[in-house]
């Protein structure tokens, strides 16, 4: 309030607008009254006090905590009802209006005026007329939420960017958005190449002829899965210098790079599993200037690219056609470029037609398919000869059929590690299964159709016995499977497979001649069958069996509810009997 500390209202009632006043001790030892003016209703006077020698209970005018229209310090801003420099208790009586934001927002709670007989509310109240012409009795809500800000958020470097993105708008500076490469090639996409020598990513080019003369344009990229042939011409002003310096004539420039299997290989160029080298079908010599002839000039380039669906490019091979050019003015060369795409065949053995164990789901009794490397085969069990010794022949594991087999393994004179390896091969077969087919028609070329086998070998702990050897003596193959699909045509698929080996420590294994081995196969059905559908509830009709049923019910209810009183039904019956008696008379 400027240089004055507090003020006091004296006189009559100051009315409803004094709700903005606060009564408190000024905190000074004494006050001195200074007359500044009189404002208020019923003769109320506003007096301003300065510090005196006695404590005084004062009434302080509380302005808004934030006065947005107080733009002139020390001066009363016109129509700014929250300006402390105006010293106004009732600014609305002085100013023609209050600027927006200079008065507290009010919130009125209203009900129909006809419901209120008399108001004794301590809060300000008024009667308003709504748009329909109905009077509404309204009470001013104290401490309206409209007058308060939300709690300020603490901003730090961790979530600054997130808040700016969520609540921010446009910006004068463009934001560089790094787009991650797609997971696999699509038809027509350019094929990415990588030059390890210079650490440069480029595109596989297929020069094409442009213009009337068909000049070679090097910038034409090859499209994924787009097999096509192009032809173009090259003209040389000085073939003597171009013979060994022009990369278009050198076969090495067409294979001294690697091809990225999938575009995401750009993110990890050091990982060679995303790169495919270009292999030569036949050797091609480098250009050589011999007298008046430029030898080993590339005249034809043929790329063979093998793809495997979303797994991308699996193999790239290139073959060349070469010719010799005679050096003379205006020498030209016509080059042919051919790119062919075909499906990737991992192995000749894998590509051979093999019998399925179901299509798609497994059929009970069919072989359980496994995959080792790129070769598909069936999981097998040991087989014994007539004398019980392990045979080289084996039984096929049939899907859904639990089995057990055993034989005697004759120990040979060899060290412990070789002995362990030979017994492992006897238990699971010469080729250790790595994956199991999820369905009976799994394709060896499609890795997603196979599931890795969980295997737990023997744990060989440190032993003080020098003549001991820990060898596997049994193998338990556990297969979890389930039905999926329609209940009318369910399809069996493998959910998981585990190989568990049990081992035994043998002392003086060089002196032992035979060890019994056992293999057990168990299939566990984990099908979760859906709940059977529930039908509509039946209507249970309950009808009375005699005419007097309603009267019995009413009479029984009357006796239960009004014991000792006359039943209305009984009175009704007496009236009916009286009427019948009158009729008979």
TrEMBL record:
Keywords: Cilium biogenesis/degradation, Glycoprotein, Signal
Keyword DNA-binding: no
Tectonic-1-3 N-terminal domain location: 60-159
Record flagged with keyword Nucleotide-binding: no
Start and end residues of each Tectonic-1-3 domain: 184-343, 357-526
Transmembrane segments: none
GO BP, one annotated term: cell projection organization
InterPro entries: TCTN1-3, TCTN1-3_dom, TCTN1-3_N
A Pfam family that the UniProt record links to this protein: DUF1619_N
Family the UniProt entry places it in: Belongs to the tectonic family.
Quaternary structure and interacting proteins, as annotated: Part of the tectonic-like complex (also named B9 complex).
Name of this chain's protein: Tectonic family member 3
Organism: Canis lupus familiaris
């Amino acid at each position: 309030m400027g240089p004055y500390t507090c003020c006091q209202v004296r006189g009559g009632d100051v009315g409803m607008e004094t709700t903005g006043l606060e009564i408190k001790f000024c905190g000074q030892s004494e006050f001195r009254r200074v007359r500044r003016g009189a404002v208020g209703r019923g003769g109320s006077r506003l007096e301003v006090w300065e510090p005196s020698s006695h404590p005084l209970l004062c009434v302080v005018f509380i302005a808004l905590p934030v006065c947005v229209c107080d733009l002139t310090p020390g001066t009363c801003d016109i129509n700014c009802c929250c300006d402390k420099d105006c010293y106004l208790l009732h600014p609305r009586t002085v100013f023609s209006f209050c600027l927006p934001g200079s008065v507290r927002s009010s919130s009125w709670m209203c009900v129909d005026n006809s419901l209120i007989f008399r108001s004794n509310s301590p809060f300000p109240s008024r009667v308003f007329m709504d748009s329909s012409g109905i009077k509404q009795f309204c009470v001013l809500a104290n401490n309206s939420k409209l007058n308060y800000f939300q709690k300020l958020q603490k901003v730090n470097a961790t979530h600054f960017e997130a808040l700016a993105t969520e609540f921010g708008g446009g910006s004068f500076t463009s934001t560089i958005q790094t787009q991650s490469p797609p997971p696999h090639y699509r038809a027509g996409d350019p094929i990415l190449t990588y030059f390890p020598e210079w650490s440069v990513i480029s595109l596989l080019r297929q020069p094409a002829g442009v213009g009337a003369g068909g000049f070679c344009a090097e910038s034409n990229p090859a499209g994924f899965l787009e097999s096509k042939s192009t032809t173009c011409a090259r003209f040389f002003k000085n073939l003597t210098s171009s013979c060994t310096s022009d990369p278009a004539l050198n076969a090495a420039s067409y294979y001294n790079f690697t091809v990225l299997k999938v575009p995401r290989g750009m993110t990890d160029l050091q990982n060679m599993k995303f790169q495919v080298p270009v292999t030569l079908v036949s050797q091609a010599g480098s250009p050589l200037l011999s007298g008046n002839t430029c030898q080993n000039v590339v005249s034809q380039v043929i790329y063979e690219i093998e793809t495997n669906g979303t797994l991308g490019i699996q193999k790239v091979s290139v073959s060349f056609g070469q010719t010799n050019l005679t050096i003379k003015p205006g020498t030209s060369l016509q080059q042919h470029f051919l790119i062919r795409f075909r499906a990737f065949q991992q192995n000749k053995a894998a590509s051979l037609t093999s019998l399925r164990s179901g299509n798609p789901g497994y059929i009970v009794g069919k072989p359980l398919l496994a995959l080792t490397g790129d070769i598909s085969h069936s999981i097998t069990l040991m087989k014994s000869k007539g004398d019980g010794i392990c045979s080289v022949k084996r039984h096929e594991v049939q899907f859904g059929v639990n089995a057990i087999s055993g034989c005697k393994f004759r120990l040979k004179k060899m060290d412990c590690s070789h002995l362990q390896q030979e017994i492992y091969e006897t238990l699971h077969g010469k080729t250790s299964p790595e994956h199991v087919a999820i369905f009976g028609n799994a394709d060896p070329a499609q890795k997603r159709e196979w599931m890795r086998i969980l295997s737990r070998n023997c744990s060989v702990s440190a032993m003080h016995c020098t003549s001991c050897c820990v060898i596997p003596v049994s193998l338990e193959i556990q297969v979890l499977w389930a039905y999926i699909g329609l209940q009318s045509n369910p399809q069996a698929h493998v959910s998981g497979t585990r190989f568990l080996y049990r081992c035994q420590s043998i002392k003086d294994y060089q002196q032992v001649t035979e060890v019994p081995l056992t293999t057990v196969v168990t299939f566990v059905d984990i099908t979760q069958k859906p709940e059977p559908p529930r039908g509509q509830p039946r209507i249970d009709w309950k009808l009375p069996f005699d005419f007097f049923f309603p009267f019995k019910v009413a009479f029984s209810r009357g006796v239960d509810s009004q014991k000792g009183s006359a039943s209305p039904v009984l009175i009704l019956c007496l009236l009916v009997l009286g009427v019948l008696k009158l009729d008979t008379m």
